[in-house]
Amino acid sequence: MSSKKSLYNWKALIVLLVSAVILVAIDQVTKIISVNSLKDKAPFVIIEGVFEFYYLENTGTAWGLFAGARYIFLILTVIILAVIVYIVLKMPYNKKYMPLHIVIILIASGAVGNFIDRLCLGYVRDFIYFKLIDFPIFNVADIYVTVSMFAMAFLILFKYDEEDFGFLRIVKKDE
Description:
This protein is mainly alpha-helical and about 180 residues long. Helices cover about 60% and strands about 10% of the residues. It contains 4 helices and 3 strands; from the N terminus they run H-E-E-H-H-E-H.
């Protein structure tokens, strides 16, 4: 690996870290506000029967699935973050891959935002509820992850092809 490529990859990692810190801070602030404004109180209704802020301490995933699996979520998050760092260090840092870098920043930010809750509190603080469709109560970190997963699917289906992910190969094709 050339020193210039290495420098760009470290730059990408620094951008990831700074961006993630900002996004995680936004997530954590909204969770603090939700605790102070909603905990042990009636939901704050925005549109009757459609959308409200409703505080929930969730020990699982959506709809409370896998409740109590805190340590599994913590371990999975560490593994996901390690994979993200590996990908960022291997992926070219240029205009072509910028959408993928943004998606990775969102995934990492969402993972860390909920990781902090699980590690420090034993549960995730959720507070956004679309009552009309009984969508699981969620938080800002969940928005990051959900949006990034849809964007990732779009990028894989319509923007990138197999050759674009050659940087992830451990052994090059010509070796």
